[in-house]
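The protein record filed here:
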Amino acid sequence: MNHLQQEVLEFRGHIARWVDERLLPQAERLDHDNEFNVELFREIGELGYISTMYPEAAGGSGVAYPYTCFTVLCEELARGSMGFAAGVCMQGSTATSTIHEWGSDALKEEYLKPALRGEKVGAFAITEPNAGSDAASLKTRAVKADGGYVINGSKIFTTNGTVADFITVVATVDPSAGTRGLELFLVDTSWAGFKVGRKLDKFSVRCSDTAELFFEDLFVPDSHCLGDGKGGGFLKAYKALTVDRIFTAALALGNAQAAYDAALRYAGERKQFGQAIGKFQAVQFKLVDMLARLEQDKLYTYYASALADRGASITTEAALAKIVAAEGGHEVCEKAHAIFGGYGLMNEYPAQRFLRDSYFPMIGGGTGDIMRLIVARQIGL
């Protein structure tokens, strides 16, 4: 066994035990309550899991294979609760990576390090009511002022939005420049001019906090601009955030694994016509197809994470991992739901939650069609 396999297996063992002991027993309640769980979030921060992707000098765990270990983290947490996993994975990647890459030492001390310990909650706000995949159409505006910028606009579908202590906001400093006019600003949610419009009620990943946000004459000092203030900061960040597609794929893997495990158990327990339904070939074939798809999705997702750890280009691989795992995970959850039959429609059984949550990775972080457009460009189409 090589060093990578040993470190990753040990890491998986540790987080899997936490999921089994702390998260799984509360998963149904978390989904029902539709609330961000502060206690579990703080706990996983104290244990060092949120900081998995970062070096020790930045307050991180300093693991040798950060992207692969963070992929494991996302998968295992989603096996317990994809909603909870979505908030933690946002915190440990997108919400903090821009500060790590481009923030000053002062910003890292004030926001990054506390966030990696789970003491502060972060978010990343880009999507607007009329601009999602089309980032060039973003309307949130940052106008230069004495000593900083004044931001006006709104965002929607922001993970961790209502509970965040700070948010990296994508705003345009030059509307005529399209995506080249977009810049990144670190906003403290205690500042005047920031307002949560509403907490959004979802049928999927319900305990992942999702918000509509407003910025009204919000002043951001120059020190909180993560670029040069002239635009282009978002394009720089976009390339760095490509790896997040692998983490979204990992969320799909974990949820699908939970669905498969539940369906396999149910097939051994449920009796019809004098025997367990798992003895019927129709059910057996479904379970085998589920396992085959799950293993296929895992192989490609971890291939992509290994490439990321080697510093290789992953634009195509990350997009493909998201397509393969998200759509494959949904297929697994549909088959699991069918095995539960009528009980699959009952909230007392988890099959309905797995199926509902399986929609999130197909949309969050860029739809499957957007991923296909990215790959099409990469292969010269």
Observations:
- DSSP finds 14 helices and nine strands in the chain.
- The longest helix spans residues 281-309.
- The chain has a mean pLDDT of 94.
- The longest strand covers residues 148-159.
